[in-house]
Design goal:
CATH topology of the largest domain: Cytochrome Bc1 Complex, Chain A, domain 1
Distance between the termini: 36 Å
Structural class: alpha+beta
Radius of gyration: 29 Å
Low-confidence stretches: 2-43
Number of domains: 4
Strand order of the largest sheet: 12-13-14-18-15-17-16
């Protein structure tokens, strides 16, 4: 699996490797000295940070470390991790990429689970390959991840046995290595393209003089082709050993019992006497600023990065922790300013961020990152550095610091409230970071205590002082990645350096911290009242308000600090003429980014600092609605925002310009990318070139109209009595009733009835095959979509399609990936739509070597034919049943799931019991129902197939059969 290592870099990751000898330690760049730590730590600045007291930890005699934490969410589940302190940076020259290959081999077979039996066993327990069974490899580590049921002692114990097998009993045979190399090479192929080519230019500069520049986890194609089982075994023997391993178990378990099981399972592992030391590789510093500019014709938009290499920071003592709090405040305040710039009428970037922290094991980065139009790269760079320079000269304001501290305190309050609802996956991730990097893994109470102790003493001066760390010339790299367009010239290095100098010499004004005062809603509406209350069962109540608004309520105890809100009303853009649709297709995004009432979006963000609340309008083809969430304490604020969204959508020219500017950036060079040409061809083909299904283009932005957009939202939200609201989460109906009666009961209504219209999107008849020739890399993509009308929509048909998709995906994965080594992954989705007409789709897709497309497509249709003739294997049907049962167990304790249930109740007037019964239909899947579904829905006389091939094989356009 590929794991991004720096959000601002195009990283590729996965793997382990072998290094017999360590090179001499390179010089590490020095970090500017930390600000003095005032005596707010009670004289305990050097006190080590405690590990979460709920964690039971220990070290076996062989050196293996373990961490076990009892946690009840989700119930009857446990997260298991095998942490190996070895990654691709340890590879020898002839092993580049073998770490990643070794990770794959671990899933291919062990002594106890030969060949594909391991994944098949895990899937038989209801776990899915990918979401629940996975691994990642980066430069410095490899981590294997499992989620296993704990309601079966045997299943949980076998999960631990799987970790033990990976730790010491992976089988590495020449036959399996040869087969798996094809999969890894396909993953490498998938990672190529514009991003890969840019990385090839930038990484040697960013990591110059370092082993990291030449040990990308995905590896080297030539080395992978020549890989042998012997060299894989060398790495496995050298670095998969107990003194470099940790086991993490978090979940619905007995910690004492699990600790004993780990001792029993892993105690026999040995570290070889001649095991090489685990070397550490640094990134050398440099006195000057380095500039690297990469251009590529297929890059969709410009990317600007400023990276400052620093000595890695540790957070091991209370003084370190205080420093981390100061850094987090700095990051929050600077990013708030960048966010405000992003919301201007002519934003210098579509997205931007700044961070002091993050990087690799032996180098840390202070960084800026922005996405901008290719022609606006220097403007984006100037804007990023100008804000840091503004902070350096004038500092932050007291208001900014107060808001940032309020957000920190709000986060602490939420963590305290949710301490018994935190998912095990979050704890497991924190313990992995603790083991590998010494990252703090404090208990909730310790974090709350320590943060509240140091936070009041943090001053503006010490936060402001951090700005200099973003402006240092030493150890700095400015990296631009820009689309290569016809007639366009990329900036030169001299122009980049001139921009840096111009920022330093610029005449700047202090930041204007404009804060608007007053209540959100100056004059509250006249409240309505609940005129009818109905018990719908399963803890769901429906209120009908005096203005006709309906409210579905589902109080839960799944999250202690969360209330989810949604609303739905029939109508949508289907009621607009085509011209109105074109002028208003960004209406919800524009209004959603315009703030509320008298407050612009930046003003609203400042006003709501320290609160957990968000509300956004939605406008789709068949309905208008609301999506929101809040903490229970902030629910009234959320309902006030709902009221303002529906009664007073803002006309804000800055928000209009900002929204379209951001979309324009992402469309800047998108048409030149192979992926967009491929997806556009597929969508246009499937929808019959319908005028409402056209690809998004710059011309569509030119047609957008602000006044028409605001008018469209006002018209669609003007009539509240056809809205049904849903509230799910931590509330008591009696306590929220006055709020609902005021802010929802006070909504206006109109004497109208809206009925969504069928805009008549017709699917193509027969078999349609198209080939798109785009891109310079030897990459191919295939998408096959079966489609058709249903006689009538039914939950049974939907369940049949979902089961068919799951079984077909597993079947094709085993054929195309495991047997043929022809692809990295296969994705199959199946579903049924109720409206506007009952219809179904089954869509399957995969990437491949262009030379093997015909072979793999033939294999797909052969598998489909076999399913029709013989039906599926019983084990695949059992996997569907068990997966449905396990998924429903978890879903029933998730607010988001219940919100979706209430959405179905609201839209179609369905009983709650009927919606909840749908997963049981999957549990009723049989070989016969899947075989019949394959025959019914996978009609080989009616489908669309689109293939993407490199430009060199065609004329750069598209062909159709």
């Amino acid at each position: 699996m590929i794991r991004p290592l720096l959000a601002a870099l195009v990283f590729v990751g996965a793997g382990c490797a072998t290094t017999q000898t360590a090179p001499p330690e390179a010089t590490r760049p020095e970090r500017p000295p930390a600000a003095d730590v005032p005596e707010t730590t009670g004289g305990a600045a050097a006190t080590p940070l405690p590990l979460d007291p709920a964690v039971r930890t220990g070290r076996l005699a062989n050196g293996l470390t373990y961490y076990v934490r009892e946690n009840r969410e989700p119930r009857d589940r446990a997260e298991l991790r095998l942490v190996v302190d070895a990654g691709s940076v340890l590879e020898d020259e002839d092993q580049r990429g073998l770490a990643h290959l070794l990770e794959h081999m671990a899933f291919n077979g062990t002594e106890a689970f030969p060949e594909q039996e391991l994944v098949r066993y895990l899937e038989s327990t209801g776990m899915q390959f990918g979401p629940d069974v996975n691994a990642y490899t980066s430069f410095d580590e490899t981590v294997y991840m499992l989620q296993v049921p704990t309601d079966s002692a045997d299943t949980f114990e076998t999960g631990l046995e799987v970790l033990r097998e990976w730790a010491g009993s992976v089988t590495i045979t020449p036959e399996e290595v040869a087969k798996e190399k094809g999969v890894v090479l396909e993953e490498l192929r998938l990672g190529r393209g514009a991003g890969g080519r840019v990385r090839d230019v930038q990484f040697p500069v960013i990591f110059q003089g370092s082993r990291y520049a030449e040990r990308l986890p995905i590896g080297d194609e030539e080395t992978l082709q020549a890989a042998t089982a012997e060299r894989l075994r060398d790495f496995y023997d050298d670095y998969y050993r107990p003194d470099l391993m940790a086991v993490v178990v978090v979940g619905d378990v007995d910690a004492d019992r699990v600790a004993g099981m780990i001792e029993d399972q892993f105690g026999d592992l040995d570290t070889p006497a001649d095991a090489p030391p685990r070397p550490s590789f640094s990134v050398p510093g440099h006195d000057e600023t380095l500039v690297v500019i990469a251009t590529d014709p297929e890059l969709p938009q410009g990317q600007v990065q400023v990276l400052l290499k620093r000595e890695p920071e540790t957070t091991r003592t209370e003084a370190d922790y205080r420093r981390s709090v100061v850094v987090s405040l700095f990051n929050a305040m600077l990013n708030a300013r960048l966010g405000e710039l992003r919301q201007s009428a002519d934003p210098p970037f579509a997205f931007a961020g700044a961070s002091l922290g993050g990087g690799l094991r032996t180098v840390d980065f202070a960084s800026f990152f922005a996405v901008a139009p290719g022609a606006g790269a220097l403007r984006a760079l100037e804007a990023l550095l100008t804000e840091a320079e503004r902070v350096r000269r004038f500092g932050f304001t007291e208001g900014e610091l107060e808001r940032a501290k309020a957000e920190v305190l709000n986060g602490l309050d939420r963590a305290l409230a949710e301490r018994d609802q935190t998912p095990s996956r979050a704890y497991a991730s924190a313990l992995v970071d603790y083991d590998l990097e010494g990252a703090p893994a404090l208990g909730v109470d310790d974090r709350n205590r320590l943060t509240r102790r140091v936070l009041p003493g943090v001053t503006l001066d010490e936060v402001t002082a951090l700005a200099s760390e973003l402006l240092e010339e030493e150890n700095r790299v400015v990296a631009l990645a820009l689309p290569e367009t016809e007639g366009g010239a990329a900036p030169t290095e001299a122009e980049v350096r001139a921009t840096l100098a111009a920022v330093e010499a610029a005449d700047l004004a202090p930041y204007d911290d404009a804060v608007a005062a007053g209540p959100l809603v100056p004059t509250p509406p006249s409240p309505g009242r609940v005129v009818e209350a109905d018990d719908l069962g399963n803890g769901v109540t429906r209120w009908t308000l005096s203005n006709g608004v309906r409210v579905l309520l589902k109080p839960t105890d799944f999250q202690n600090d969360e209330v989810l809100i949604s609303a739905t009303s029939p109508g949508g853009t289907s009621l607009f003429s085509l011209d109105t649709y074109r002028a208003t297709q960004f209406a919800a995004a524009v209004v959603g980014s315009s703030g509320a009432g008298t407050f612009s979006a930046p003003e609203l963000q400042k006003k709501l600092a320290g609160q957990t609340v968000s509300v956004l309008p939605t406008l789709s083809e068949r309905e208008e609605g609301i999506r929101g969430q809040a903490s229970p304490d902030d629910l009234e604020t959320a309902l006030q925002l709902v009221y303002l969204t529906m009664t007073a959508p803002r006309r804000d020219e800055d928000a209009f310009g900002s929204t379209l500017g951001q979309i324009r950036t992402f469309l800047d060079n998108a048409a030149a990318t192979p992926q967009k040409a491929f997806s556009d061809t597929l969508n246009v083909t499937l929808t019959g070139d319908h005028p409402r299904r056209q690809p998004l283009t710059l011309a569509a932005l030119d047609a957008a109209d602000l006044d028409a957009s605001v008018a469209a939202v006002r018209e669609r939200f003007a009539d509240a009595d056809d809205f049904t609201f849903s509230l799910v989460g931590a509330f008591e109906p009696s306590e929220v009733q006055p709020l609902v009666e005021t802010w929802l009961g006070g909504l206006p209504t109109l004497p109208r009835t809206d009925v969504p219209q069928d805009v008549l999107v017709d699917r193509p008849d027969g078999v349609v095959r198209k080939t798109v020739y785009r891109g310079v890399e030897p990459q191919a993509r295939v998408q096959v979509v079966f489609h058709g009308l249903l006689n009538a929509y039914s939950d049974e048909a939907k369940a049949e399609l979902e089961a068919l998709a799951q079984i077909l995906e597993t079947t094709l994965r085993e054929t195309l990936r495991e047997d043929l080594g022809g692809t990295y992954s296969v994705r199959v989705q199946g579903g049924a739509d109720r409206e506007p007409r009952p219809e179904y789709t089954v869509s399957l897709g995969f990437g491949a070597d262009p030379a093997r497309v015909d072979e793999l497509v033939d294999a797909v249709f052969a598998d489909i034919a076999a399913l029709k003739a013989d039906g599926p294997e019983d084990r695949l049907v059992q996997n569907v049943r068990e997966g449905a049962r396990r998924e429903q167990q978890t879903a029933l304790r998730q607010n988001g799931y219940w919100l979706s249930v209430l959405g179905q109740v609201a839209r179609y007037g369905l009983p709650v019991d009927e919606v909840l019964a749908r997963p049981a239909l999957l549990e009723a899947t049989t070989e016969a129902t899947v075989q019949e579904a394959t025959r019914r829905y996978l009609d080989t006389d009616r489908y669309v197939q689109v293939v993407l091939l490199p430009e060199i094989l065609g004329d750069g356009g598209a062909t159709a059969e």
